[in-house]
Amino acid sequence: MTLELNSRIPAGPLPEKWDRHRFEMKLVNPANKRKHTIIVVGSGLAGAAAAASFSELGYNVRCYCYQDSPRRAHSIAAQGGINAAKNYQNDGDSVRRLFYDTIKGGDFRSREANTWRLAQVSVNIIDQCVAQGVPFAREYGGLLANRSFGGAQVSRTFYARGQTGQQLLLGAYQALEKEIARGGVKMYPRAEMLDLIVVNGRARGIVVRDELTGTVEPHFADTVVLCTGGYSNVFYLSTNAKGCNATAIWRAYKRGAAFANPCYTQIHPTCIPVAGDYQSKLTLMSESLRNDGRVWVPKRREDVGKKPNDIPEADRDYYLERKYPSFGNLSPRDIASRAAKEACDDGRGVGPGGRGVYLDFADAIKRLGVEKIRERYGNLFEMYERITDENPYQVPMRIYPAPHYTMGGLWVDYNLMSNVPGLHVGGEANFSDHGANRLGASALMQGLSDGYFILPATVSDYLGSNKLEPVSADAPEVKAAVADVAERTRKLLSIQGTRTVASFHRELGHIMWEYCGMARSAEGLKKALELIPKLREEFWRDVRIPGAGTELNQTLEHAGRVADFLELGELMCRDALHREESCGGHFRVEHQTADGEALRDDEHFAYVAAWQYAGPSAPPILNKEPLEFESVKLSTRSYK
Amino acid sequence: MNLTLQVWRQSGPDAPGGLKEYQATGISPDMSFLEMLDVVNEGLIERGDLPIAFDHDCREGICGSCGMMINGVAHGPMKGTATCQLHMRSFHDGDTVVIEPWRARAFPVIRDLVVNRAALDRVIAAGGYVSVNTGSPQDANNIPVPKDDADAAMDAAACIGCGACVAACPNGSASLFTGAKISHLGLLPQGQPERYRRALSMVSQMDLEDFGYCTWYGECQEACPKEISIDVISRMNRDFMVATLREPEARETSSGEG
Question: A520-544 burial by CB neighbour count: b if 16+ within 10 A, else e?
Fold first, then answer.
């Protein structure tokens, strides 16, 4: 049985849809708001912003995060900036241009209406954040500064040094703490959502494990909002924090929520290359560096062992500038990543294992002086030096692509509600706005747009339009969900095999990177679809988790997350195999142009692939939401 | 390289703890400190022992989760560096490394190297914000901020809330943490309406938690991975003092300067 996917896109011309919808949506009377409880899982930009905003409106909010404080959510690590169509620079920006750049950057695989709304709301985000005291970079006149980012020819990115995510998250976190102090939000740190409670077809709560005591309890609400981030850690090595996981959205999937476009993953071009087998994560070097840094490899293979400063200008291949003269070093992420892989596959990669390219600041330092560069990127340069023991003011950085962001996620309609009524999904956890590739500085924009502006309106509409009876803790659905979680924990702890959780995670990561990474083939994906179930079987037979379930047990937490990645990885490969085209971050080697660019197939694949769980032994069911384009013309993406 | 570790092990908040010795063998100088602990933990699990519990997340020095006393120094020997960004090249083959949790009355140990830092959240909840609700504020460029003020605010706002300042302070004071937030918001026009109220309530909350007083040891700024200057404490004290002059009754609610 397939799903009915109604995207609920409002009628009317694109620029008017959101305003019209806002008027048509139901409101909840202020006196009634306090009778409603909203669960928000995750405290990153989307989660913290939504939780604070719901509470300000008068709802009772319960917010959960796995970290010891909501301020530690991984949004904090975003470096470069946040886009907004303010046109403060008078360089031709507008809501329409940001919309168009985002649609095109996503390789025409996102919904027009959602993307327009994102661009439209972007300007309010900056106003809101400045009012909160976010210390954005400023010009001497006291006005806000901007910089450029990949995939755009205008300067629309607002930033706070290389710590924009931190400052935006602290703004949202402080708003959240303000509401916690007022009593509107009850915060549950060190708490992990391990299941979704669906009663009479509606999401009515979650099952939560207290990480300190191991207590598993149901928590109830009138609606559940998941803002739990992305799943790049399926690759083991990624730029995500170690704790980032897909468990919340995966359990929701297994309770009926469709998972959209799982194969759309973003491999970020500028990360510090892998140095050894012990490596636990990869570190991003902000894309903003490509404003001033020039990417190159030696022209000749025999030069790769030479010191970079000994290779004369004439022997360097500035391949992005050569291949994409109009965007150059600011080509979008998917394109820059593939170009780096190509150069390394050609034997011209530098550094250990030949998996690296140079990002060179010598010209910028000559042009602007060391001080200017230090002011712009000082903290990034320091971070690079700490990790690699090389001074990027003197020798070029070495960078290589790494998994960074997942455009796929739970399917949502225009109201950010999944196909399970009452289950809303915001931020990276949903699939909605970026299509097959996200442009730089757009993740912060989406997280805050969803959290501050979209969810407060649409969740109110849901609460105002539905009569929700209280849920009893004795309801069979509740008891079943709690029992499932307890049984799963018991089973994990009872295996007592020989292999560590990390070893399984690492092996899964190798499979995913090799066969479902930057370049994918039918043959490779089929191989991965054989390897992953085998690995999963071995995991459930041979994993070793020391300690008990009734105390802080970080290995047990990790094991639960890896168990879910072992299922999600398979769905990603299945989706990648079915999508017989290349688009954005999804590059199928069988589908490329003569010069190696992605070759889309709009006739057959201009749709959202929403996968539906069909039980442990049946393959998932593919549902399609056709993408209709009224405002933009589908074209071959060109950055040349 | 091979190292001898002496690690604080404590099975729960009320259990007795003690240093236990472990060998870290085959360590690469390019590993981060936490990756070295990962290797040790993998070995412990393979031998059927309990791994060493420690908080960590982003591993790029920004989330503030990680933090431990390394040979008695918060975040270890490298200045301006969080534990996750400390690399093993800062140590030598054959070294003995003593690893302990943050030591502060306000940060009770949960397990091994994991401590409870919720007191820091409560200090922020007491007033570390600008009271604006989500809505339709004025256009962002209607609030010009002199660049120097914006830069100084950003310097203070860089705090990652790791708690190293508290752990390094002989008094266990949170003045650097609290002063950083008071300075960040107090330097900006948006923070002015609540400036003195904020100083009063945040300092009072700090007193209510188990933090000690600042007596200008200066250890906090040495330990801070973001190198936040002790100047923020002066600013906090100034704002606090003005606040008590403006609102004499407020003096009753707090016992004095941070």
Answer: beeebbeebbebbeebbeebeeebb
